[in-house]
Write a structure and sequence with these properties.
It is a single chain. By secondary structure, the protein is mainly beta. The chain has one domain: Gamma-glutamyl cyclotransferase-like (Hypothetical upf0131 protein ytfp), CATH 3.10.490. The protein has one helix at 71-78, and strands at 5-10, 33-38, 40-43, 50-53, 59-68, 84-93, 98-107. A hairpin with a 6-residue loop joins β3 and β4.
Length: 125
């Protein structure tokens, strides 16, 4: 039997308190789990949202959800069209124990390294 769900790591505007979260709510199959992944977070120079870059020394904090695979249509229109790439990344519990792998959106364009979010966590205003 083929699974019709995937794990997705959200770290910005798609998180539970994010402005785009209502667009994905119907595709969620689980409650959120607070987790982290290796990476570095920056504020986008194009608007009020974060971008994640892979990095093996820092963590990005976010939420892990089990989601219906149909969510990829929304991800395409809200993220991939604007320069993000989908990538499978390792996800860790907050106590550093390994949890799973999940898809996430990584930035694949130029960015201003001065706009680093040192805490690794996007806080929505």
């Amino acid at each position: 039997m083929i699974n019709d769900f995937i794990f997705f790591f959200f770290y910005g505007t798609l998180k539970e308190d994010g402005e785009l979260h209502p667009q994905i709510k119907e595709y969620l199959l689980s409650d959120k789990i607070k987790v982290k992944s290796f990476g570095c977070l920056y504020k986008s120079t194009y608007g009020n949202w974060p971008i994640m870059i892979l990095d093996d020394k820092n963590y990005v904090y976010g939420e892990l959800f089990q989601v219906k695979d149909e969510i990829l249509k929304i991800i395409y229109h809200e993220e991939l069209l604007y320069g993000y790439l989908l990538k499978l990344v390792d996800i860790y519990n907050l106590d550093n124990s390994y949890h799973t792998k999940a898809l996430t959106c990584l930035w694949d364009n130029e960015f201003d390294k001065e706009n680093i979010i040192k805490s690794g966590e996007w806080i929505n205003n």
